[in-house]
UniProtKB/TrEMBL annotation:
GO molecular function: 1,3-beta-D-glucan synthase activity
Pfam families xref list: CALS1, Glucan_synthase
Origin: domain of life: Eukaryota
InterPro entries documented for this protein: CALS1_helical, Glyco_trans_48_dom
Organism lineage string: Eukaryota, Viridiplantae, Streptophyta, Embryophyta, Tracheophyta
Organism: Arabidopsis thaliana x Arabidopsis arenosa
UniProt protein name: Glycosyl transferase family 48
Length: 1051
């Protein structure tokens, strides 16, 4: 840039200052260049020359005539020499000293002869330094003093090499040699995202940060139960059923980070890492930091302390300390004696005063006594992070203090422990944790839900004005920790002019959305919810509560008003929601911060009441109403077509030629599919990353069937919210902390989604089929599609989405294994101690558990809802060919007689199989054959004499199958009565038959598609498009080490 400035300083200065970052980079390069040269040059003559050269350059920079006076075309030559010098300084080898001397001499020559163009003062100084003149003539060359060549002229190799020096050299080397576009640095996508967000956030409106001594103090609390703390080597290497180990998975998902890790520990392969215990532990940590482990969360939260130490150093350091560097001060403090209190010790003390981290490990005491490896891993974490505190519930046996009673009693304590700073890894086996506080409890601590009780017993050990309750599947970043001082200042601002905030709302980032399409869908949905959604709820609606775990509580406000968690059994299953409700009801002020100040109003207006409704129960209620509307629409259409009203209405010209109605039907179908529901997400991505990125991601999401996923999730919310309204209760379903690229078996999917999706999807499919059968005579195909396309989309989604989004869901070998597992599960007999995963009977009984605790109203409503199948049957039996001429109610009675006759025959066959199949096998087979021949004869007679058609047979099946299901629902609701009557075994047998039929209806299309290999390839590409775009070979992950194993077996 200087070379091409045409000798005009003003133009060069203007070009540099047009970009602030360029200006800072140029200044830093020049300052680092000067600092390194002055540090390396030690000789007096050399120092004198260097000082004068830099003084001349600085003078011309100040006067603005640097380019006019000096020749900038020689700068590339100086640049090449200096880069070579930096490389030698990085290697720091004694044998390179001569090369370094030559480089200094070459640089001096370039500066004095080429750039400064034989400046008289500089040239004379250099000549005199080389030896001057001798009796009016030049001194012979062999007698001249050679600059930089003497033993003490330069400091090389550098000893000792400090961390600050290394960092300075590496940084100047990167500044000078990095030529890539800013869009490609860094190459890691996650690092690029973090840097982008951090740099953008610095330009947001945030409070000024006080000095660390003056900032508000805060605590972080993490509840932990029995999840993974640190992956063991066995965990990392043990393959799953697909032959994929955790370590193999991580190596393929994070290939660049794996290569960086090997380079960092100076190993070439995985085998070298296992040669020493230290490297093995580094491998375990590397893997654990990329899973949902406690180690990852603790490391992330301890960045707060690291950030405070750095900021305290910047607050308290003198100029000499700043020039020496933060890392150098840290290392020097470790090497110094314990005499004078070092600067580093002061920084640590200030950080400890302002930050406390407590992990509430509920079972830590039990794990210690039982020798559980997790206790050792937690102890290792405390050793790695000495300021980490662990709280747990200790249950001990103590003698009864009352002398009139004998024996022991259980006593419970809340205990806070730490590891002394002198403890090292060699003493871990001795369990050297030190008790800080031991508080006796009045009784068992866990009387409600586990997680909130775990938080409640440990919250007393927190300190400071702020409090974060972080789950153990979350992470934190160093750059975000640097802004904590700014955030805590928000507590001192009255955002609504009346009250200080009680909760500071923050956004979350979903870090699992980089591989799977499902994770990407949820990540985008969460992004829109925690940004534009939360922003809107906070301002102007002012109804934001507590949704994200990064939210920071006013600790004193909540401790004196009921705490941050309510642990009532079943009622308060989600402890997070309570905190927001509690804060608002007690006149708290909940804000949301992307460093945009918002606040709450003091008056609950009508619109704010409606917004408050929708942000709480209203969202789920509206979802329920949406699905109920679909049911009402379909049953209403069925009534119109079976009663003949639709045919009559279609003959009227005003309805037949109603173009606006047709347009409205088409537009509502477009909206129901869910395109416009993605509009907030589209706007948020466009705001943060540009409209082009937003549009491309929106199109990709549609191609990857995002509407299918979100429509399926609609059914989940509807089913469980509706069940809760009818019967009450709630249940925590663990989602696991493992890795998600695995194949779920067909039986697992059936257990999870049978009642919530499959049954409802089949019911809607029957309604749509019947609507088409009896309305096709007078209605066109286009009209039918316009009316029902969105319903068919919902049916297909609810029936097949779990298999569509199941990795290897269409791989033939997996299909065969799934079928074997399904048959085993459906035929296994249940009983006491048999889990639902092993037997259909146990699962079926467990699915009715909510009916045992339901009230009479819930049971009555359940029965009334089941009656819809009987009404459905009533409409169909009058549309058979043999009954089309009569509307007598006896026809409906005869249909029930047929149903009971079929059930009686099925019961007879079932009883006969149990009693006579072993002793009278031939007779039993003859009876079954007779029953079958009788059934065929009845069908033939009806076809020949009563003119029954094939359509009539199909209609009978469509009518009687739902009726049997309705009878099952009523029997389950009245289980005590049915059980006493002795029919429960028959109900269970009938239910098993229905489950087998539903399983076949779902499994057959999946198995058919699995015949075609391209279907599996298409599914893999659809599911893992994000990974393919990152260059990952997901097929290798799904295939695991099979090829490697097969090759080894051959060998």
């Amino acid at each position: 840039m200087a070379k091409d400035s045409n000798g005009k300083d003003r133009e060069l200065k203007k070009r540099i200052e047009s970009d602030t970052y360029m200006k800072c980079a140029v200044r830093e390069c020049y300052a680092s260049f000067k600092n390194i040269i002055k540090f390396v040059v030690q000789g007096n003559r050399e120092k004198e020359v260097i000082e004068i050269i830099f003084a001349e350059v600085d003078k011309h920079i100040d006067t603005g005539d640097l380019i006019q006076e000096y020749k900038m075309s020689a700068l590339p030559s100086l640049y090449d020499h200096f880069v070579k010098l930096i490389k030698y300084l990085l290697d720091n080898k004694e044998e390179d000293r001569d090369h370094v001397v030559i480089l200094f001499q070459d640089m001096l020559e370039v500066v004095t002869r080429d750039i400064m163009m034989e400046d008289y003062n500089i040239s004379s100084l250099v000549d005199s330094s080389h030896g001057g003149t001798w009796h009016g003539g030049m001194i012979p060359l062999e007698q001249q003093y050679q600059l930089f060549a003497s033993s003490g002229a330069i400091r090389f190799p550098i000893e000792p090499v400090t961390e600050a020096w290394k960092e300075k050299i590496k940084r100047i080397y990167l500044l000078l040699t990095t030529k890539e576009s800013a869009m490609d640095v860094p190459s890691n996508l996650e690092a690029r995202r973090r840097i982008s967000f951090f740099s953008n956030s610095l330009f947001m409106d945030m409070p000024m940060a006080p000095k660390v001594r003056n900032m508000l103090s805060f605590s972080v609390l993490t509840p932990y139960y029995t999840e993974e703390v640190l992956f063991s080597l066995r965990d990392l290497e043990t393959p799953n059923e697909d032959g994929v180990s955790i370590l193999f998975y991580l190596q393929k998902i994070f290939p660049d980070e794996w290569n960086n890790f090997l380079e960092r520990v100076k190993c070439l392969s995985e085998e070298e890492l296992k040669e020493s215990d230290e490297l093995e532990e580094e491998l375990r940590l590397w893997a654990s930091y990329r899973g949902q482990t406690l180690s990852r969360t603790v490391r992330g939260m301890m960045y707060y302390r690291k950030a405070l130490e750095l900021q305290a150093f910047l607050d308290m350091a003198m100029h000499e300390d700043l020039m020496e560097g933060y890392k150098a001060v840290e290392l020097n403090s470790e090497n110094n004696s314990r005499g004078e209190r070092s600067l580093w010790a002061q920084c640590q003390a200030v950080a400890d005063m302002k930050f406390t981290y407590v992990v509430s490990c509920q079972q830590y005491g039990i794990h210690k006594r039982s020798g559980d490896p997790r206790a050792q891993d937690i102890l290792r974490l405390m050793t790695r992070y000495p300021s980490l505190r662990v709280a747990y519930i200790d249950e001990v046996e103590e003698p009864v203090k009352d002398k009139s009673k004998k024996g022991n009693q259980k006593v419970y304590y809340s205990v806070l422990v730490k590891v002394p700073k002198s403890t090292d890894h060699s003493t871990l086996a001795q369990n050297l944790d030190q008790v800080i506080y031991r508080i006796r409890l009045p009784g068992p601590a866990i009387i409600g839900e586990g997680k909130p009780e775990n938080q409640n017993h440990a919250i007393i050990f927190s300190r400071g004005e702020g409090l974060q309750t972080i789950d153990m599947n979350q992470d934190n970043y160093m750059e975000e920790a640097l802004k904590m001082r700014n955030l805590l200042q928000e507590f001192l601002t009255k955002h609504d002019g009346v009250r200080h905030p009680s909760i500071l709302g923050l956004r979350e980032h979903i870090f699992t959305g980089s591989v799977s399409s499902l994770a990407w869908f949820m990540s985008n949905q969460e992004t829109s919810f925690v940004t534009i959604g939360q922003r809107l709820l906070a301002n102007p609606l002012r109804v934001r509560f507590h949704y994200g775990h990064p939210d920071v509580f006013d600790r004193l406000f909540h401790l004196t008003r009921g705490g941050v968690s309510k642990a009532s059994k079943v009622i308060n299953l989600s402890e997070d929601i309570f905190a927001g409700f509690n804060s608002t009801l007690r006149e708290g002020n909940v804000t949301h911060h992307e460093y945009i100040q918002v606040g709450l109003d003091t008056v609950l207006t009508f619109f704010r009441m409606m917004s408050c409704y929708f942000t709480t129960v209203g969202f789920y209620f509206s979802t329920l109403i949406t699905v109920l509307t679909v049911y009402i629409f379909l049953y209403g259409r069925l009534y119109l077509v079976l009663s003949g009203l639709e045919q009559g209405l279609s003959t009227q010209k005003g309805i037949r030629d109603n173009t606006p109605l047709q347009i409205a039907l088409a537009s509502q179908s477009f909206v129901q599919i869910g395109f416009l529901m993605a509009l907030p997400m589209l706007m948020e991505i466009g705001l943060e990353r540009g409209s082009r990125t937003a549009l491309s991601e929106f199109v990709l999401m549609q191609l990857q069937l995002a509407p299918v996923f979100f429509t399926f999730s609609l059914g989940t919310k509807t089913h469980y919210y509706g069940r809760t309204l009818l019967h009450g209760g709630a249940k925590y379903r663990s989602t696991g902390r493992g890795f998600v690229v695995f194949h779920a078996k067909f039986a697992d999917n059936y257990r999870l989604y049978s009642r919530s999706h499959f049954v409802k999807g089949l019911e809607m499919m029957l309604l749509l089929v019947v609507y088409q059968i009896f309305g096709s005579a007078y209605r066109g195909v286009l009209a039918y599609l316009l009316i029902t396309i969105s319903m068919w989309f919902m049916v297909g989604t609810w029936l097949f989405a779990p298999f569509l989004f199941n990795p290897s869901g269409f791989e033939w070998q997996k299909i065969v294994d799934d079928w074997t597992d399904w048959n085993k599960w459906i035929n296994n007999i249940g009983g006491i101690g048999v889990p639902a995963e092993k037997s259909w009977e146990s699962w079926w009984e467990e699915e009715q558990e909510h009916l045992r605790y339901s009230g009479k109203r819930g049971i009555v409503v359940e029965i009334l809802l089941a009656l819809r199948f009987f009404i459905y049957q009533y409409g169909l039996v009058y549309h058979l060919t043999i009954t089309e001429k009569t509307k007598n109610f006896l026809v409906y009675g005869v249909s029930w007689l047929v149903i009971f006759l079929i059930l009686f025959v099925m019961k007879t066959v079932s009883v006969g199989r149990r009693r006579f199949s072993a002793s009278f096998q031939l007779m039993f087979r003859l009876i079954k054959g007779l029953i079958f021949m009788t059934f065929i004869a009845i069908i033939v007679i009806l076809i020949t004499l009563a003119h029954m058609t094939i359509q009539d047979i199909i209609v009978c099946i469509l009518a009687f199958m739902p009726t049997g299901w309705g009878m099952l629902l009523i029997a389950q609701a009245c289980k005590p009565v049915v059980h006493r009557a002795g029919f429960w075994g028959s109900v269970r047998t009938l239910a098993r038959g229905y489950e087998i039929v539903m399983g076949l209806l779902l499994f057959t299309p999946v198995a058919f598609l699995a015949w075609f290999p391209f279907v599996s390839e298409f599914q893999t590409r659809m599911l893992f498009n994000q990974a393919f775009s990152r260059g990952l070979q997901i097929s290798r992950i799904l295939g695991g080490h099979r090829k490697d194993r097969s090759s080894r077996n051959k060998e």
